[in-house]
Description:
Elements: E1 3-6, H1 12-25, E2 29-33, E3 45-49, H2 56-64, E4 70-72, H3 76-84, E5 88-90, E6 96-97, H4 102-117, H5 130-148
Helix pairs in contact: 1-5, 3-4
Amino acid sequence: MKIWIDADACPNVIKDILFRAAERTQIELTLVANQAMRLPPSQYIRFVQVPPGLDVADKRIVESMTAGDLVVTADIPLAAAVIEKAGIALNPRGELYTQENIRERLSMRNFMDNLRSGGVNTGGPPELTNKDKQLFANKLDAWLAKRKV
């Protein structure tokens, strides 16, 4: 099993947690983005740069991942595609996307997109809190523990 990161929008603090986890557990971690990124030296961490474009990184992740892989993303359509392919989707705030909640998340995302396209300022996501970081780390540790079994 591998970890994939939708890296363009992933907060650096979450990437740092993932970098440490990859080293500690010796699991392959792949960041996918359309712009170059600085990575710590590690035989377990790699980077795939994709061309600019709508959903190019998302498509690469879905094509490359396999069932059981963990994908870290805040992109709800990507999370839905990961779940459809029997992967695990976790957002940087520690929310696990599941078969049970992904439809609701997609509906809310589409509703907010419609508001924004109609000129309504919906604001951005709230700042990542320490509680969010801890929840993410806990969910990651739970997934890593299952991997060992």
